Every structure is written in C-alpha cells, then in structure tokens.
Automatic annotation (TrEMBL):
The chain crosses the membrane at residues 54-81, 93-114, 148-167, 198-221, 241-263. The keyword Cell membrane applies. PANTHER family: INNER MEMBRANE ABC TRANSPORTER PERMEASE PROTEIN YDCU-RELATED, INNER MEMBRANE ABC TRANSPORTER PERMEASE PROTEIN YDCU-RELATED-RELATED. It holds the Pfam family BPD_transp_1. This is ABC transporter permease. GO terms for biological process: transmembrane transport. Coiled coil: none annotated. Its main location: membrane. The lineage of its organism: Bacteria, Pseudomonadati, Pseudomonadota, Alphaproteobacteria, Hyphomicrobiales. Residues 54-262 form the ABC transmembrane type-1 domain.
Length: 273
C-alpha cells in the first residue's frame, strides 16, 4: 500500500498543484468581494456584461459538436464499412493531420483562409462559382464553428473508428448478406454499439472548445465572442480576476452538465441491460 502511494504521489501532486488548487481558488474568488466577504456580486456583474457572450459560446459549442459528430460518424463509418482499395487508406492517412496542428496555428490558418479576400473566396471566384463582389468574410461564428470542427474531427474520428474496428463484424456481414446497405448498417448496427465512445469524445471536445483562447481571439474582433476571450480581456485590461473567474464558472457549469448527462445515459443504459 505504501509503495503504491509513493508511485502515484508525483502524479497526484502535479494534479493537485496544477489543476485542483487553481480550480478551487477560482471558484472561491468568483464568490468573493474586494474585502474578502462572500457574495454573488461577481456573478451578477458577469451576467450583466457578458450574458450575450455566454449564450454565443453555448450556441457555437453546440453547432461545433453537431458538425463534429456528423463528420466523424461519416469518416469513421466509411473507414469501417468502405470497400474502396485506395479511398480507405488515403482517408485513413489524411484525416489525422489536424491532430498535430496547435490551435494557434489553426486559428491563424483559418483567419487567412476564411477572410473576405482569403484563399477560400479566391478559389471560388477563380472557379467561377462566386462573384468577387458577393464575397463575404467568414470570420464570425461560422469561422469559429468550422475551425473548431476541423481541429476536433480527427480526435473524435480516431476514438470512434477504433471502437468500430473492435466490433464483431459477424452482425455487419449478416446484415449485408440480407441486403442491408452500408448506411443502414452504420445507423442501425454500428452506431448503437459505439454510442458511449462517441459521447465521451464529444464531451472531451466540448471541454476543449470551451477552453481555447487563440481561435476566438484571432477570428473575432468584436462582440459577442467566446467566454475565454472575455475572461482574458477582463484580466488583461482591468486586472479583474474575480469577474473573470465568475465568467469561467459558466464554462464549468456547461461542461459539468454535459458530463452529468453522459454519466446518466451511461448508467441508464447499463441498468437496462
């Protein structure tokens, strides 16, 4: 027992100092006034000034998760059920590249790609698909959704494709022999069996989306924007850690609700077995 505690002591110490202690301090500071007394004034101020940013962050996160789930299911499903000898290996090699690109690089790339005179509109204009006068900048909520999705799709696909590859293929082959198409096999046989892994990946993606600062700071210059950008703004320009921590409390609540919903569905599914 003592030797086991010694082995895990460095990891526990790092978690306590780098994660647990700052989290506890931020929660306490969010409910403290300048004189150290406890109140909800910081929460009220955060809601008064940044309620639009809170709603904006939630909507962007939900839209990003929906796009991530749809694209990840499509890619993982094709990797599992696809039959092309060249498309499957090419897709398996290609989809992982965003995993190795930092968010700050992804944000800068998206800023150049999605601007009004960026690469996307330039390609569309050169191809004759879009008129130059009608070109629009996507450096708004659309750019955030596309960037978050592009960055997180490989992570979710990797977990989902791994879970699909571990399934017993006898049921899939039986369904295919009875005339079921690949889409029906995917949605009726494969997805129900890997739903827990998909939910875990989406919850982890939500945590990542709610914690990234570089992407909203690079893509959006006005309001509303993500809560992380407003927290940084509050600290940088006002030195107001109390309101910034109060604003961060809403990020904690959103991710906690997502984790609670996942645990409830998982326990309910286990109880029904």
């Amino acid at each position: 027992m003592g030797a086991g505690l010694l082995l895990v002591a460095p990891a526990l110490t790092a978690i306590g100092l780098l994660y647990a202690a700052p989290l506890l301090r931020s929660l306490i500071t969010a409910f403290q006034d300048g004189d150290g007394s406890f109140s909800t004034a910081n929460i009220a101020k955060a809601l008064e000034f940044y309620s639009g940013d809170i709603i904006f962050s939630i909507l962007v996160a939900l839209a990003s998760l929906a796009l991530i789930a749809a694209a990840s299911i499509a890619i993982a499903g094709y990797l599992t059920l696809g039959e092309s000898r060249w498309a499957v290996p090419l897709l398996r090699w290609l989809y992982r590249w965003p995993l190795f690109i930092p968010f700050i690089v992804a944000g800068q790339t998206a800023r150049s790609f999605l601007a009004r005179n960026g690469m996307l509109n330039t390609l569309l204009v050169d191809a004759g698909v879009l008129d130059a006068a009608a070109a629009q900048s996507l450096l708004d909520w659309r750019g955030l959704v596309l960037t978050f999705a592009w960055k997180q799709i490989p992570f979710v696909t990797l977990l989902l494709a791994g879970a699909m590859a571990s399934l017993d293929r006898s049921t899939i082959e039986a369904a295919r022999n009875l005339g079921a198409g690949r889409l029906r096999c995917l949605f009726d046989i494969v997805l129900p069996q890997v739903r827990p892994q998909l939910l875990v990946a989406l919850v982890l993606s939500l945590v990542t989306i709610m914690s990234v600062l570089s992407v909203p700071a690079m893509l959006i210059s006005g309001n509303p924007t993500m809560m992380t950008a407003m927290m940084a703004h509050r600290v940088t320009y006002y030195g107001d850690y109390a309101v910034a921590n109060a604003l961060g409390l809403f990020s904690y609540l959103l991710t906690a609700v997502a984790a609670w919903a996942y645990l409830r569905m998982t326990l309910k599914a286990k109880a029904g077995q």
